[in-house]
Structures are given as C-alpha cells and as structure tokens.
Amino acid sequence: MMTGRPRNLFGLLVTATILLVGAWPRSEEFAVEVHSPPAPGSPAPLFSSGKLKGGTLSLASLRGHVVLLNFWAPACPPCRIEMPELEKIHQRYAGRGLRVLGITEMDPSREQVLSALKEVAVTYPILLDPGARIGSLYAIAAHPTSVVIDARGVVRYVNVGYLRGEEKDIEQAILRTLGPRRKQGVGSDSPGARDGGP
C-alpha cells in the first residue's frame, strides 16, 4: 500500500501519461512523407549536369538509348566493388545502344572523385551532382543505386544497394530493355569515343 509522497508521485505520473497520450498526434497527423526512387513504368526525371572532364550532359539528349544511371560515392566501398562490373556491362552493350552514366553523390570534391577513379577506372561518363540535386529527383536513399531507363525515358528497373552478383540482375534488366539484338552496320564506333569517357 502506497502512502503520502509516493502515492502523490504515482498519481502525477498517471495523470501526465493520460494527458500525453490524449495529446499525442494520430498517425495520419504524424505521418512523415517518405520518397522512394521512381517505380518501374514511371517517367524518369530529366536532368542536366556537368561532366567530370568538362561539358554537360542531359538525360534528354540520350532519348532513343537505353540508359543505366549509377548513383555512387567515392566514400562508398560497395560502389567501388560494383563499378568494374558496370564497366564490363558498358563495354558489352554500348554497341547495342546502352549508355551508362555514373552520378557522384554525397558532395565529394573533384579531387576525391578523381582519386576514386584511379582505383576503379571506368570509361563511361561521370557526372557531378553538387547538392544531390539529381539524387533528390530520384529519391536516392542508399549508395549505390542503379536505375535502368528505356529509350522512351521510362524507368524499367531499380536496384538499391549492391551485393556481389546483383550485376547479373542489372544486366538482365538491361537486356530486357534493349530487346532483341539487331544487325549492325559496318563502322560502329567504340563506346569510349561515343560517350566521351569520365
């Protein structure tokens, strides 16, 4: 049995709890809007950004090509493991119309990006995304994130994060998006020549 001071303290705690619970916002009032990357079947947000080696590149200029966007950061170990696999995909399918773009996230300096690219040399263009403007358009929450976009500008596949072997899933999504192989004419140019490299 409680007496005196402990009973008063207990009564105050019960009263405060009842008041707090009654004043607590209902779930719909407390809901936080969570964004996710564009879902397959939705239009890919358009952007234009500076390339690491100079000049600018816009997503709209690649209409008619299948595009793989890879959001990465120099400070992201899984990104550096995945990038050589994406380079292989780039080399394998550039002749069929694939364009791969690496988009830097987490505001690295130009020097940090160049240093990371010494470890993982890629020939596809690297775009700078100061302030994560493009990353925000795509609601990037994890690095790396890869997005496959079809020739009409529609998102076809999204892969968030990277575990070894997931490059096979990305490659299969690219193959589905590219469609059946067409015969090419003589004189196809090399992937590096078309894309201009990093």
Topology readout:
Elements: H1 4-23, H2 27-30, E1 48-50, E2 56-58, E3 66-72, H3 77-93, E4 98-104, H4 110-119, E5 126-127, H5 133-137, E6 145-149, E7 155-160, H6 166-178, H7 191-195
Parallel strand pairs: 3-4, 4-5
Antiparallel strand pairs: 1-2, 3-6, 6-7
Account of the protein in words:
The protein contains 7 helices and 7 strands; from the N terminus they run H-H-E-E-E-H-E-H-E-H-E-E-H-H. The chain has 198 residues and is α/β, with parallel strands linked by helices. It has a domain at 48-181: Glutaredoxin, CATH 3.40.30.10. Strand 3, helix 3 (77-93) and strand 4 (98-104) form a beta-alpha-beta unit. It is globular, with a radius of gyration of 24 Å. 28% of the residues are buried. Mean pLDDT is 83; it is low at 9-34 and 186-195.
Which key phrases capture this entry?
alpha/beta; 198 residues; globular; Glutaredoxin; two-stranded antiparallel sheet
Structure summarized in a few sentences:
Helices cover 37% and strands 17% of the residues. With 198 residues, the protein is an alpha/beta fold.
What pattern of helices and strands is seen along the backbone? HHEEEHEHEHEEHH
Helix content: 25-40%
Beta-strand content: 15-25%
- Architecture of the domain at 48-181, CATH level 2? 3-Layer(aba) Sandwich
Mean pLDDT figure: 83
Q: Report strand order across the widest sheet.
A: 5-4-3-6-7
CATH-level-4 superfamily name of the domain at 48-181: Glutaredoxin
Write down how many β-strands occur, each being a DSSP E stretch of 2 or more residues.
Answer: 7
